[in-house]
Amino acid sequence: MVHGNSKSTLNIAVASNFVSPMKKLIDLFAIKSSTPIKLSVGSSGSLHAQIVNGAPFELFFSADQEKPSSLVAANLASKKHQHTYAIGRLVLWSSKNNIDPHELLLAGSFTKLALANPEVAPYGEAAVSVLRSLRLYEKYRGRQVQGQNIAQTYLYTSSGNAQLGFISASQNEEPRGSTWNIPSSLYQPIKQDVVLINKADNSKIAIQFLEFIKSNEAKAIIMHYGYGIASGT
Amino acid sequence: MGLSDSDLTAIMLTIRLATTVTVLLVLLGTPLAWWLARTNSFLRAPIGAITTLPLVLPPTVIGFYLLVALGPQSPAAELLIFLGVGPLPFTFTGLVIASMIYSLPFVIQPLQNAFSDLDEQSLEAATTLGAGSLDRFFSVVLPLSKQGFFVAAILGFAHTIGEFGVVLMIGGNIPGETQVVSTQIYTYVESLDYESANKLSAIMLIFSLAILLPLYAVQNRSLGSLVAPWPKRD
User: Fold this and answer.
1) Is the CB of B186 less than 8 angstroms away from the CB of A70?
2) Which end of chain B is more exposed for a tag (fewer CB within 10 A), N or C?
3) Residue numbers in A near B68 (CB within 8 A)
4) Res. B23: pLDDT tops 50
C-alpha cells in the first residue's frame, strides 16, 4: 500500500456474499467517475471490528442491518446515509447435478449439512430458521458443519465434504449442481444495509456511489445476482 | 470471571488436541529428524525443505488443500474410507492430522539440531562397547539430546494451541470436536461480543506465555540455538 488512502480514492468494505455483484457495480460506476475504488472483502463482523478501530473505509456494505445500525449508534456512521441495498436469498444447494436437495433434506439422505455459523452470519441464522420451521433442527444437529461465513460454507459444499449446504443464491452465479429455492416464508428476510462512515475522507464521492446503488441499472445488476430489492428505496 | 460451558469445552478440546499432536509428532518425528541430521543422501535437501514448508505456508493454504485433498471426490479419501478411517474433514482425527502437518517443523528442527550436535565419539564408544542401535539410542542419544526433546515438545504444543487458519478451513466449528479456543475467539469477535473475546484471549496469552517461559528460564547456550526454528548453519 502506498501512503494509506489518498484523498482521491474511494474505499469500500463489502461482506463476502456481495463481492461478485459489487465488482460489476464498480465496473459500471467507473464509466461515470474517474475516482479509483479500493475494495476490501471480509465478513461483516471483521469489517465492523476494523471500522470501530479506525479502518479507512468510506462505505460499509454489510450482510445484515445490525452491524451498520450499531455503527450509527456509536456515532461512527451516518443514519441519514444508511439504506437496504439488497435482500439476500437463501438456497439449499448440492454440487451434484439432477438431484432434489429439498427431498434429500427431508429424507435425511446426507452425512453432513453445511451452514454458516448462525452466531456471526445472517445467512446462518436464516438457515437455522428454515431448519426450525421444518422441525429438523434438533434432528440434524449432529450432522451440521459450520463455515465461519457464507463463502466458507460454499467451499464445504462445492468440495463435496458436505453433501448439502445453505448458501446465498448469489453464490451460484453460473448455475451448477442442484438448488432448492427456499420459500421466503421459512425465514426472516436477510436485509443487507450499507452505511456511510462518518470519518470518511472522501464522502462526496461516497454519496455519489450510494445514489448510484439506488439507480435502476444498479438494481438490475443486484437482482441479476439473485438478490431482492427493498421496496421504497 | 465466568467462562461459558462452550468456552470450557473449547479449552479442554484445545489442550487434548495439542497433547495428542505433540506426543505423536515427537514419536514419529524422531526417526525423521535423526535421518535428516545424519544422512548424506541426496534426498536430504528436498525432504528437509518439505518438512520446513508448513513454517512458511499460510495455514489457509494447508487447510484449503487438506479440505480439497481429503474431500469425498479425492483418491486419498477413497483410500482412507477403504482403510476404515472415514472422511476426515470436520472430525477430531482430521484436526490431529492437519495439526501434525502444521506443527511438524517446530518439532523436527530442534530434534534435528540436537542430533547433529551429538558428539561422534560417545556414539562410537557405545558401538565399540557392543551396544545395538536401539540400546545406543536409549542409553546415549536420548540423554544427550533431552534438551532437544524438551524444546521440540514445548514448541510443538504451543504452536498447536495457537493454530487457527487450518482449523477454520477444515474444522466446521463443531463443539467438543473441532471448536477450539482460537476459532471460538474469532466467533466472539465476529459476533461483536468483544468482552468474551477479551476474556478468552487473555487466557490464551497467559497460558502461551507460561508454556514458553521454561524454554527461556533454563539458562543454557545450546538450548538457545535449539529454539531457533530454522535450519542451523554449520
Assistant:
1) no
2) C
3) 159
4) yes
- Give the nearest chain B residue to A70 (CA atoms): B192
Chain A residues near residue B71 by CB distance under 8 angstroms: 159-161
CB contact under 8 A, A111 and B183: no
Domain boundaries, chain B: 5-227
Instruction: Give the integer Cα–Cα distance in Å for B130 and B145.
Output: 21
Cβ within 8 Å, pair A112-B90: yes
Task: Transcribe A23-48 into DSSP letters.
Answer: HHHHHHHHHH----EEEEEE-HHHHH
Counting as low any pLDDT under 50, the low residues of chain A are 1-6
Contact A160 B72 (CB under 8 A): yes
C-alpha cell at A123: 445467512
ipTM higher than threshold 0.85? no
pTM: 0.80
* A140 in Cβ contact with A172 (< 8 Å): no
Highest CATH level, class, for B5-227: mainly alpha
Ordered by where they begin, the domains of chain A are 10-87+192-224 (3.40.190.10), 90-181 (3.40.190.10)
- Cα–Cα distance measured from residue A105 to residue A163, given in angstroms and rounded to the nearest whole number: 10
